[in-house]
Amino acid sequence: MRRSGHTLDWENKPLPFKIYPTLPPLRLPTDLPVLAADTFAALAPEPPIVRPALLDLERLAALLFFSAGVTRVKTYPGGGQIHFRAAPSTGALYQTEVYVVAGDVAGLEPGLYHFNPGDFSLRRLRAGDYRGTVAMATADDAVAEQPASLILSGLYWRNTWKYEARGYRHLFWDSGTLLAQLLAAGRALEVPARVLEGFVDAELNGLLGLEAEKEGALVVAPLGAPVRAAGPPPVVTPLHPEVIPLSAHEMDYPLLREAYADSELASEAEVTDWRDGGQVLHSGIVGMQDLTPLVAAREVAGRSVGETIARRGSTREFSGDGISEEELSSALFHATRGFAADVPGGLVDLYVTVHAVAGLEPGAYAYHREPHALEQLAAGDVRATSTFLCLEQALGGMSAATVFFLADLGRVLGRWGNRGYRAANLEAGLIGGRLYLAAYAQGFGATGLTFYDRAVVEFFSPHARGKDALFVTALGRGRRRG
After folding, report:
1. How far apart (Å, rounded) are the C-alpha atoms in residues 223 and 143?
2. DSSP assignments along 21-33, one per residue
3. End of a domain among 276, 311, 334?
4. Is the peptide bond before 462 cis (omega within 30 degrees of 0)?
C-alpha cells in the first residue's frame, strides 16, 4: 500500500450527483411523513406489517430521503462543499444511484425515474409501467404486483477515483448501508420492502440505459403491498440520455468491470437456478465452547428511526470512552436479526475487538448470533492491534468496540457462485448500516473502516482460518469538539 503511486487528484474529483441536463425535474414533496417508530422496532424483520400503508408520492419521497437524501451540507474554506447523505458511504463519495420503477404509486405517473438527491427530484427516463420488465429480469412474478421497485446501481468512477479497483467491494457495502435505512424507513412507514440480489444484469442495465463500462445495477428493492398486477410492459427500446461527465478525465479499472461481468446472470432461467439451487448456508461460526452470553438487548432504543437517521453521521474521532455491555449487546442483536431477501442471511460472521465495554473483559471475540453470545479468542488490551488492522487508523483502536465482518468465501462461492461475493459484501454492508442505526439510536457513534485483509484473518485465527475479511464497523463515543 505504501509503495502505491496513487494520489487524489482534487481537480478531477467526480461530481457528487448524476445529472441529466435535458430532463425536466419533478420536485418531490418535502412535507414528509414522520418516522415515529422506535429505531429498534424499525430494525426488526418480524412481525409482518399487518395493515400496509398505501404507497403514495409522499411516502415514496420519505423512503428516498431517509435512505439516499441529502441531510446536511458542509462548506469548507474556499467554497468546497460535501453533501452528506442519509446513509453512510465509503469516503463520503456516494456512488450509489437510485432509480424508481413506478407502476401504481398514488400521485406519480407510471414510468422509470432517476432520483437526484441534490435537488430532491425525480427525472423520468421512460414513460409507462415497466414493473413487468423488472419482474421478468428478477424471475419474481410478485414484483409486477407491487406498486414500485427501487433499483440501486453503482457509478464506478465516483468511488475508484479514491479507492481504485477495491471500489468493487464498496459498491455493495454502500448499497447495503443504504438498504439498511430503506428497510427501516419502510417498516416505520408501514410500507413492506424486500431485497432481490438475483436478476438478469443486462436486462436491468438496458432498462436503465446505463453505460456498461461506467455503471451497473446492483440490487432491486420492491416496495409496497401487492396491488393490481401490471399489464404487459412496453418494449424496452435503447435509451441514450445525455449525462454530464463526472470528471474531465475518468480512469477505467478493468478488474472491477471484470468482477462485475464474471458474476452476471444471463437469463431468467439462470436467475431461478441460482436462487433455488443448492443448500441454504448458515453462519460459519460453529464453535460453541466457552460462550459468554451477552446481557439481554434493549427492546426499545428510546429514539425514533427518523430522529436516528437525522442524527446519524460517520464518527470522525472517538474519545476512547466506554459504552455499556447492554449497549453493545443491543447493537449486535438488532443489527443481525435478518432481512427479507432472496438470499438467506448468514453469509458473514462477526468478530469483535472489545476495548472499553463495561462488563466485558477487553480482548478479541467471535459473536454467535443465535445464542447471542461472545466466544473469547484472546484476552487483554488489543487497541494497538485493532488500530493496525484498520489500516493504522486510530478510529479502529480508540473505539469502544470494533466489529470485523469475515466470510468463508469457499462456502459462499460454492453455493452462490461468483455472485456470492456480491451477496456477502452486501450483507456485511447492511448489517454494518444497522450497527450505525443501533449506535446512534442509543446515543453513541459508529464509522466504517477499511483494513489489512490478511492481517485481520491472521489475528482472529485459528478460529477464522480459511475466511476472508470483508468490512469493519467501529462503535464508540465521539470526541466532543468546540
Report:
1. 9
2. TTSPPEEPPSSPP
3. 276
4. yes
Which H helix or E strand runs over 332? helix 325-335
Residue appearing with cell numbers 468482477:
259
DSSP 297: P
H-helix segments, 234-304: 254-261, 268-276
**What is the average per-residue pLDDT within 183-193?**
97
Residue 252 in grid coordinates: 477505467
Which tens digit of pLDDT belongs to each residue from 238-260? Answer: 999 999 999 999 999 999 999 99
Could you give the CA distance from residue 40 to residue 440 in angstroms, rounded to a whole number? 11
Q: Please name the residue that has the C-alpha cell 427518523.
A: 306
- In tens, the pLDDT along 428-439 reads 999 999 999 999
- In tens, the pLDDT along 260-311 reads 999 999 999 999 999 997 555 655 565 556 899 999 999 999 999 999 999 8
- How many CB atoms are located within 10 Å of the residue 87 CB? 27
Residue 304 domain boundaries: 291-476
Coil, strand or helix at 39: helix
User: Which one of 224, 252, 276 terminates a domain?
Assistant: 276
Q: What is the DSSP letter of 478?
A: B
3-class SS of residue 190: coil
Cut 0.90: pTM above it: yes
| Per-residue cell: 105 | 404509486
Specify if 160 maps to a domain: yes
Count of other CB atoms within 10 angstroms of residue 211: 12
Task: Report the C-alpha gap between 354 and 372 in whole angstroms.
Answer: 16
